Automatic annotation (TrEMBL):
This is Peptidase M20 domain-containing protein 2. GO terms for biological process: folic acid catabolic process. It comes from Anaerotruncus colihominis. Residues 173-266 form the Peptidase M20 dimerisation domain. Belongs to the peptidase M20A family. The lineage of its organism: Bacteria, Bacillati, Bacillota, Clostridia, Eubacteriales.
Length: 390
């Protein structure tokens, strides 16, 4: 691992050689947002920047056209991976700040590459993980065992304020396709089988579920196809549902119940239902006391304050699936108090000086975290033990 002297110099000067290019990379992605699994220009630009500094990149990677992987000092006994996201939201653009968080991971790996001769038995990778918002690039990679080799994975997300402790709920997505029989709604409705009634019954029954599931559970859905005309009995309808719960074992039962509601709705309306996956299923994520303490120390060593919101979040992310394979860190870097992800205001903030500063601070955080964990094997072992006990 690099020396303490080199580490201090990295934080003070080492990132400066690459930071303007990282800001330009983020700004370009913010101005040209691309949806998940279609981040072609974003991934090309990231790969081009890595290759500019002599880093060999595998691209595409893991069977995904916009994923990539690069290794600094391959073959090291100790292994860490920085995760880079770069997908945007429909309509809103980079309202989740992935342009900035992805650029921060790139900036950190460029700095690591500059001191690769001092890594010793440490290997540090960067993996570009597409489609966090829906398609779950990390889930696909986790199924392939890609994260099994690492001591830890880390990335920094953008948020209103700095935050060490975050929580992500487990999430399941499903699509229900009801098939009935068409008929003229006035002349012979008795000959039809109303697929819209089936969808309506599904919504009614899942609403009735809410009284009988844990209060933290979230069940949400919308009708994506409700029929074609008012004078035709709808013979085919579609609805997309998302279920969430704090823990995977809690969610499995809730999701099964929702699917049974769909089957019952089909039976009651004499229609048929096909149940399809909608996106990837995300596992839950909890920070844990020791990881939180280490991240607090990293923030404070960089002169940054940390907030602890009462609600640590009930959203979902595919970082939870990474966490089933290795210790995973997902702190948040503040870009402005009161700013909330998945909003137009958050997207508009992406090219401001505050975000550029957050990119630099996030890269510093990744370097600080890596240095602390790989120079204290006892601490790393304790973190790994705690992580898999959560």
């Amino acid at each position: 691992m690099w020396s303490e002297k080199t580490h201090k110099k990295l934080l003070r000067e080492g990132l400066a050689a690459f930071e303007e290019e990282a800001y330009a990379l983020s700004d370009c992605m913010a101005a040209n947002p691309e949806l998940g699994s279609a981040e072609f220009e974003s991934s090309k630009n990231i790969v081009a920047l890595l290759e500019k500094y002599g880093i060999e990149v595998e691209y595409p990677f893991a069977g995904m056209a916009t994923a990539f992987k690069a290794s600094i000092n391959p073959g090291g006994r100790k292994k860490a991976v920085f995760l880079a996201e770069y997908d945007a939201l429909p309509e809103i653009g980079h309202g989740c700040g992935h342009c900035a968080s992805g650029a921060a991971s790139v900036l950190a790996i460029l700095a690591v590459n500059a001191v690769k001769a001092q890594l010793g038995d440490v290997q540090i990778d960067i993996i570009g993980t597409p489609d966090e918002e829906w398609g779950g690039g990390k889930v696909i990679m986790q199924r392939q065992g890609i994260f099994d080799q690492y001591d830890f994975a880390a990335m920094v997300h953008m948020m209103g304020e700095n935050q060490s402790a975050v929580q992500f709920y487990a999430l399941d997505g499903m699509e229900f396709v009801f098939k009935g029989a068409p008929a003229h709604a006035a002349a012979c409705p008795e000959k039809g089988r109303n697929a819209l009634n089936a969808v309506r019954l599904l919504f009614e029954s899942t609403d009735m579920m809410r009284q009988h599931v844990i209060k933290e559970a979230i069940i949400s859905g919308y009708i994506s196809d409700g029929g074609k005309a008012a004078n035709i009995i709808p013979d085919k309808t579609r609805a997309v549902f998302i279920t969430r719960a704090p823990r995977r074992h809690q969610l499995n039962d809730i999701t099964s119940w929702v699917k049974n509601c769909a089957k019952a709705a089909a039976m009651a309306t004499r229609t048929e239902v096909e149940i399809l996956p909608a996106g990837e299923d995300y596992d839950d994520y909890f920070t844990g006391p020791l990881k939180e303490e280490v991240m607090d120390t990293c923030f404070h060593s960089l002169g940054l304050e940390v907030v602890r919101p009462e609600n640590q979040g009930n959203g979902s992310s595919d970082i939870g699936n990474v966490a089933t394979a290795c210790a995973a860190f997902h702190p948040c870097m503040g870009i402005g108090k009161g700013l909330v992800p998945h909003t137009y205001e958050f997207a508009r903030a992406m090219t401001t000086p505050a975000v550029h500063k957050a990119i630099l601070n996030s890269a510093k955080f990744l370097l600080e975290l890596t240095y602390r964990l790989f120079t204290d094997e006892e601490l790393l072992d304790k973190i790994k033990k705690e992580h898999f006990s959560l």
